[in-house]
Specification:
149 residues, mainly alpha, 6 helices, 73% helix, elongated
């Protein structure tokens, strides 16, 4: 049992180390996270249009979009490597100066996105609306603190 636990810990550490060096340079990391954020914005925007009545609410499409956002919410985090605060980015240097708070806000967004995906599968529009609002607030909270206007 102890050997299995050590193996799991070692493989987790190696996976983390591999992720830390996944990008050749900061430019690649910036492009990676911006691409992920663009996909999140597209999916979230489509759900927002449904929530605002700008387009018909289609439960199946909404659930698919929510599932996409939940999966995508984990992707940009990897692209916030040291040095990627320089270049063509809207990320403020504060991301790296207050990394613990940034990480906590990203985790909250990921958790809310996962809840939204789960709630959307059930189809209860009142619960969907609340989960959508919570996800949007956590997204905006990070933007307000860590993104240029």
């Amino acid at each position: 049992m102890k050997k299995l636990l050590l193996t799991l810990v070692a493989s987790t550490l190696l996976a983390s180390a591999a992720q830390a060096h996944n990008f050749e340079d900061a430019k690649d990391a910036i492009e990676y996270r911006q691409s992920a954020f663009s996909l999140i914005a597209y999916n979230f925007g489509d759900m927002g249009a449904m929530m605002k009545g700008k387009k018909p609410f289609e439960a199946e499409t909404f659930a698919m979009r929510a599932t996409n956002v939940a999966a995508l919410s984990k992707i940009p985090f990897e692209g916030f490597i040291d040095g990627s605060d320089k270049g063509e980015t809207e990320a403020l240097a504060k991301v790296w100066q207050d990394r613990a708070d940034f990480d906590a806000k990203m985790k909250t967004f990921q958790e809310n996105a996962a809840i939204l995906a789960t709630v959307a599968q059930k189809g209860d529009q009142a619960a969907i609306k609340q989960a959508f609002m919570d996800t949007g607030k956590s997204c905006k909270g990070c933007h307000d603190a860590y993104k240029k206007d």
